[in-house]
Known about the structure:
Layout: E1 2-6, E2 9-13, H1 21-28, E3 47-50, E4 53-56, H2 62-65, E5 69-71, H3 81-88, H4 98-111, H5 117-124, H6 134-146
Parallel strand pairs: 1-5
Antiparallel strand pairs: 1-2, 3-4, 3-5
Helix pairs in contact: 3-6
Amino acid sequence: MVELLINGKKYETEAEPGDNLLWAIRENLKLKGTKYGCGEGTCGACTIHLDGEAVRSCQLTVADAVGKSLTTIEGIPHDHPVKAAWISTQAPQCGYCHPGQIMQAIALLSKNSNPSRGEIVEAMDGVLCRCGTYPRIMKAIQKAAGEGGSR
């Protein structure tokens, strides 16, 4: 039995320490908001926060997360400025990538509360959107930055 701290709550899972963290989160713990995209860490759909840093959960093992604080999209309050901006700018189309997009955007804004367009592009570069809603994603991040999106 392995204990993980996710979204401020302790979870016990039967996942093995060497198991993939993404699958432990999704399949063992049934937190389905974190998505599987490529399995290679290049699409960003599986982005979570590990001790406040945006990471690709498909590239980590359960052992990598033991003793650390994990945050998934389910742990981000509904009234968070980034989520609110996503809704008000109608950023999602299919929505599949947006949990990863939101997690990456929150990590960016926690480090840089007023990023330039170029800094946003650089920070978000590794989170792919199949629908191409990048202009709306940019608008949402800029809006969230203006509304204190780093909380």
